[in-house]
Amino acid sequence: MLCFAEITDSSMDSIDSAHNKVRFYRFEVDVRARQVRKHGIRIRLQQQPFQILVLLLERPGEVVTREALQKAIWPADTFVDFDVGLAAAVHKLRQALGDSAEEPRFIETLPKRGFRFIAPVETVPAKQEGSPDSIILVAPAEAPAPPQPQHLHRRTGSNRKRFLYRISAVAVLVAAVSSAVWWRIRTKPHVYVIAVLPLKNLSAEPNSDYFSDSLTDEIIRKLSLIEGLEVRSRTSSFAFKDKPRNLAEVSRALGVNLVLEGSVLCSGEKLRIDVNVVRVPDDTTIWSERFDRPLADIVAIQDEISRSIVNELRLKQIGGQRRYNTKFETYDLYLKAESLAMKPLDQGKSHQAIELFERVIASDGEFAPAYAGIGEIYARLRNPRGYSPDALQKMREMAKKAIDLDPLLAESWATMGIANASDLMWGDAERAFRQSIQLNPNLSQVRRDFALFVLVPEGKLEEAVQQERKALELDPLAIDQGVQLGLILTLTGGYDEALALTRQSFEAKPVSVGGQVYGHALMLKGRYDDAMRAFGMQGGISRGYLGCVYAKTGRRAEAEQIAAEDDVAKGRHQVLIYAGLGDTDRLFAALNTLADNDDYIVDLYPFYPELGFVRRDPRMRELRRKRNLPPLQ
Questions:
Q1: Which domain, by its residues, includes 238?
Q2: Are residues 119 and 14 part of one domain?
């Protein structure tokens, strides 16, 4: 143990001069001067973090309890929240040393106990007259010194000096080797997976949830641009909105090891944001900060949060966005529009969001995210027969403008990918989606759209499944994620997994796409009675599937009756029914009708198992050629 005195203002001046300086890694701590230097350059460190460092250096390898720290640094008559103060001081100390709570090189957290200094430490005694500077290596764990042989005491003069130099050199070498080995052990690659829980809205103003919710969305977006940090999607994170704090449940449900949580308080022109990043396995706060700023600093605060997490976890930024210096009123409008756009698809809310985005553009024509927002809404408003020409033109226009203003907006590249796919420009669509994923690999919806609207039509089913699996991993609580993966699995023979993925959706809401995929998987497994029951519960949306089952089970008249029904999705129904009946002529007639109506499902149907018997028909090759797609293999 290093013998420092009790850490108080008066005692620091009375520390024994023989142990005035301490070294570890590339740092030197001068206790008397209250300074920390790295490579001889002084590092700014406030009083409390410095006191904690000295207390830890006194006992390398040993636990310094929270109680000991409180007694030494926060006396009983100090009116302060000890937990908050300690967390802030330790965080500042780690920042100064370039350390990390997740992968500590110097300071290890022992949950609910205290902290331990884990790096090799050297004490540097003061110079002695006529002797070289000596370095004493202190092991992390204290051990009794071995008895010194008598003959060592008889060394004098030049022999003694040579011996001391050798001892010093060996000590330095041992310290260097142990530090190198320790560094190699402590810095193994680590996968960080974080969920950003909805920030709590502490503001008293009514209808102000949009601000905290949209701010959460913006933080998710910025963290998604950090290499080495996997970020769970909004849908899954918002499943925990307004629920009691239970990080173990969050970790289990989302598969994360880090959680960002916090609160937002707006009062007049002032803004307070409290943010904590917690390591879930031991419920340890690895970073926390309070931002008391003017409302106008809202964008700068988001950047600071992102940079702090990058520094704390020793990661690096792989993407970014143009910095927008827009007025707060304009940004507030954008947050309101984002809040509406993020809600489940609803024509009324979508048009309200578009109107708000257009007001943002009227206020600041250079604000690229507003153009991107409009483009994304149009991308989501696909009807059963595709996009109207006006909607497609508007979608492309908005995406192009956003990219021109900010080429790093991943969402706009994805929107451009959808527009290109709608125009049957498959190569351009694929390049746009890959650019989007490269810019931001954490966008689950982008991966889903890429899989369904580009990869499946191109016949790249294996990669489509991979993209869907990654999307489900990023957004595990979104039921529709598993539904779309289930749909593609029915095209590749994965019927059992498709059933498992969609059963919950069917049971919760039988009249849904999930229920339809569930029934389809039952039909493909030959469970026709169960499939008919499932489709019968779903009504109009699954009439084509029901007719297909009728055809397969010999109820041809009933199948023909459904095929003749007047329905907005009549062409879709007829493809399935005529496939079940084995009527190739009417099947291709129905497929061509869908192509004429620009219904995107015409590019998916060739991979349905029911159409397997016509894949090598020359008419299929011609249909694919008309759709600018390669022949089926």
A1: 192-319
A2: yes
With H, G, I as helix, E, B as strand and everything else as coil, classify residue 537. Answer: helix
User: Do 221 and 112 lie in a common domain?
Assistant: no
Of the candidates 387, 383, 460, 375, the one whose C-alpha atom is nearest the C-alpha of residue 424 is: 387
The closest of 473, 556, 484, 494 to 516, measured between CA atoms, is 484
pLDDT at 61: 83
Q: What is the pLDDT of residues 503-560, one digit of tens each?
A: 988 888 888 899 999 999 999 999 999 999 999 998 888 999 999 999 999 999 999 9
> Are 174 and 210 in a shared domain?
no
Beta-bridge partners for 394: none
Residue 486, token pair as written in the block: 């289930």
Contact 82, 70 (CB under 8 A): yes
Residue 261 lies in a domain: yes
Task: Judge if 209 and 177 occupy the same domain.
Answer: no
- Contact between 275 and 262 (Cβ < 8 Å): yes
Query: Are 13 and 138 part of one and the same domain?
Result: yes
How far CA 177 is from CA of 24, 25, 117, 165, 171, in Å, comes to 13, 11, 18, 18, 10
**Which amino acid type is present at position 84?**
V
Last residue of some domain: 135, 170, 186? Answer: 186
Does 174 share its domain with 139? yes
Q: What are phi and psi of 133, to 5 degrees?
A: -60, 130
User: 113: which 2 tokens?
Assistant: 């106990």
Token pair of 576 as six digits? 């399935």
Residue 598 falls inside a structural domain: no
In DSSP terms, which residues pair with 123 in a beta bridge? 22, 136
Burial code of 547-557, b = ≥16 C-beta within 10 A, e = fewer? bbbbbbbeeee
130: confidence class by pLDDT, cuts 50, 70, 90: very low
74 and 163 share one domain: yes
Give the pLDDT confidence of 424-469 residue by residue, as tens digits: 999 999 999 999 999 999 999 999 999 999 999 999 999 999 999 9
Phi/psi at 270 (5° precision): -110, 150
At 372, is the secondary structure helix, strand, or coil? helix
d(CA 157, CA 393): 92
Q: Classify residue 503: in a domain, yes or no.
A: no
Total count of domains within the chain: 2
Of 118, 5, 84, 16, the C-alpha closest to 51 is 5
In this structure, the answer to whether residues 26 and 172 fall within a common structural domain is yes
In a domain, 508, yes or no: no
